[in-house]
Each structure stands twice: as C-alpha cells, then as structure tokens.
C-alpha cells in the first residue's frame, strides 16, 4: 500500500491504473489514487482480494474523468461499491467490464439507469444476478449509446431479459 500511495502522490497526472493479482493492496491505495489523481480515466482491478467497496466509492466521487472500469475476481467487491462508483462517475463512463463478482441485479439496474454514455458493457460469470436484474437494466432507458454488450456465464440471463 505504501509504495503505490507514494506513486499516487508523485503522479498527479496519472490516467491509467491496472492492479492485477495484488493480494496485499487494500482500499487505502484506491483512496490515495482518488485523492491525488483526479485525471484517472481507466481503472482495472483484477484478483485483488483485499479491495472492498470503500475504495470504489471514493474513486467514483473523486475521479470525474473515469471512462473505463474493469473489475474482475475481487471477492470483497459488492453491490455497494459498484453502485456508488457507477452512479457517481456516470457522466464519463464509456466502458464497464464486470467478471466473477458477488453482485446482484441492483448493479445492473444502476448501470441501466446511469449508463447514458456507456458504449461497451461486458458481464461475465455473475452468478448472483437474476432475470430481474437484466430486465430492469434493459428497460431503464439509460443505455442509448451502447454499441457492444458481452454476457457470458450469467445464469440469470433469460429470453425475457434479452427482450428488454
């Protein structure tokens, strides 16, 4: 945490941050990046077991230029963190990729409502998202600019959800 926090302090123009398989990194790093790097446009967090909702909430509030978000295989990231980030950073978000997360249909409903600038959406291995989540996302009328959607291994996707 200390090393990446120092990098955030020294790199206020940082635009892209990829954290992949960093088991010792915690929300403290995301909070430091959010406070010191307001120009962040791309964030990838993959297989970081100690990243939770708090860091994502602060990123959403403090990084208004965020265009691309990828969160994959982070056990402690849930609805609260992603909902807060998406609803706060919705004015610029163009790409969202969510994979192997413990989230519910609430996240999809928020994406459907706030995703007004979203052009690319990828949802993979979201086992706890039910049919209603996909249906609400499709009927929320916020995805008017969406050009590409990828959905894999999401058991809740049904014909009804696709029709929406």
Automatic annotation (TrEMBL):
One of its GO terms (biological process) is SCF-dependent proteasomal ubiquitin-dependent protein catabolic process. Residues 10-159 form the F-box/LRR-repeat protein 15-like leucin rich repeat domain. Pfam families: DUF7885. GO terms for cellular component: SCF ubiquitin ligase complex. It comes from the Eukaryota. This is Putative F-box protein family. The lineage of its organism: Eukaryota, Viridiplantae, Streptophyta, Embryophyta, Tracheophyta.
